[in-house]
Structure to design on (364 residues):
């Protein structure tokens, strides 16, 4: 893998902006796409990447972000269907090597595993952490 | 036939009315409770209120036994996911998605979902009709790879009075039928074309303009 990657992030909300700031800081080329220009205010002053305003479900917007040159795409909008669509388009139309989509609904996650789209489900992750916390709490009390 | 339609507004209403009139069993999925109530009052279709891209709602609407799922919401991402869920989770044999962004029609096909773009369809209809008013019908077949066009031969047509075999027709084009005085004729090379004939042409998108010009002449 190259030292500096070309990374496209869809959605500049809490997750998107956090990823963008950190990846840009360590020297990657980052492009963030969001429909709402004001979300770019969350980018840190030293963010050196590009900002694209537009709907990522439109081909023209993805082309503007030069998605075909991307090594990595993160789909991190708050809409599951947008993330799932953009992830598939990135993988199958633009041949992006590494594609990750955030999906809130755990049931949808299963379906997209079938289509070969790698997903992260914050709901499942959080549930696991909570359950783990409960289990270790009980173990500490010696009744597990 | 059991048709499941996810969408809203006039498209949903008139599609449903059309299909129920043909005797199909229609099920509608719409997110808006108020609109659902209206639809249920006006149409003889089952109406399910909810998010059509949610597998639970699709199941409730009976997606498992549906012959066709149509996704015509104003959001392309929803239309794609609805169709993919229908195929993957409910084994629906035929699905069709509306591509609001015309570029997405091609994208959806690449992702394995049949799609259509109303912008494409209406756009090509208007272009053809506005540029040549003698063209009275145009129908794309084979996913738009073949055009069926009906034209009326005007007084200024360069081919009026000519025999079919004397007309220099571009490659990959065909005069399928000539309708004269309401009588259809399947023409052979020896048949003459006359002013007022209605001619049904088969063309390809790449030679469509050229073929039309052959029959109607140059127009300013």
């Amino acid at each position: 893998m190259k030292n500096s990657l070309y990374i496209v992030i869809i959605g500049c909300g809490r997750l998107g902006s956090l990823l963008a700031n950190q990846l840009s800081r360590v020297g990657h080329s980052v492009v963030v796409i969001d429909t709402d220009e004001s979300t770019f205010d969350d980018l840190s002053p030293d963010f050196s990447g590009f900002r694209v305003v537009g709907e990522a479900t439109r081909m023209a917007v993805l082309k503007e972000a030069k998605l075909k040159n991307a090594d990595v795409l993160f789909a991190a909008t708050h809409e599951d269907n947008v993330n799932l669509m953009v992830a598939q388009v990135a993988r199958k139309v633009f041949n992006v090597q590494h594609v990750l989509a955030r999906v809130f609904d755990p049931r949808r996650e299963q379906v997209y595993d079938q289509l070969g789209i790698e997903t992260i489900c914050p709901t499942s992750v959080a549930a696991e952490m909570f359950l783990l916390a409960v289990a270790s709490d009980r173990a500490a009390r010696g009744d597990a | 036939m059991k048709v499941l339609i996810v969408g809203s507004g006039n498209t949903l209403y008139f599609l449903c009315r059309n299909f129920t009139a043909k005797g199909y069993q229609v099920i509608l999925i719409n997110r808006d409770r108020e609109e659902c109530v209206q639809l249920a009052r006006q149409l003889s279709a089952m109406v399910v209120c909810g998010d059509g891209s949610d597998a639970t709602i699709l199941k409730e609407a009976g997606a498992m036994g549906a012959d066709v799922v149509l996704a015509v919401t104003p959001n392309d991402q929803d239309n794609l996911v609805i169709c993919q869920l229908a195929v993957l989770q409910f084994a629906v044999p035929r699905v069709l998605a509306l591509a609001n962004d015309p570029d997405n029609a091609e994208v959806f096909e690449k992702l394995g979902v049949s799609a259509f773009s109303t912008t494409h369809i209406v756009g090509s209809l208007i272009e053809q009709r506005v540029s040549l008013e003698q063209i009275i019908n145009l129908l794309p077949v084979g996913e738009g790879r073949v055009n069926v066009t009906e034209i009326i031969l005007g007084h200024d047509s360069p081919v009026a009075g000519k025999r079919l075999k004397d007309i220099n027709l571009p490659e990959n084009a065909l005069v399928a039928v000539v309708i004269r005085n309401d009588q259809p004729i399947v023409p052979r090379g020896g048949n003459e074309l006359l002013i007022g004939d209605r001619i049904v042409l088969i063309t390809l998108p790449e030679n469509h303009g050229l073929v039309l010009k052959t029959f109607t002449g140059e127009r300013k």
Observations:
- The CA atoms of residues 53 and 81 of chain B lie 6 Å apart.
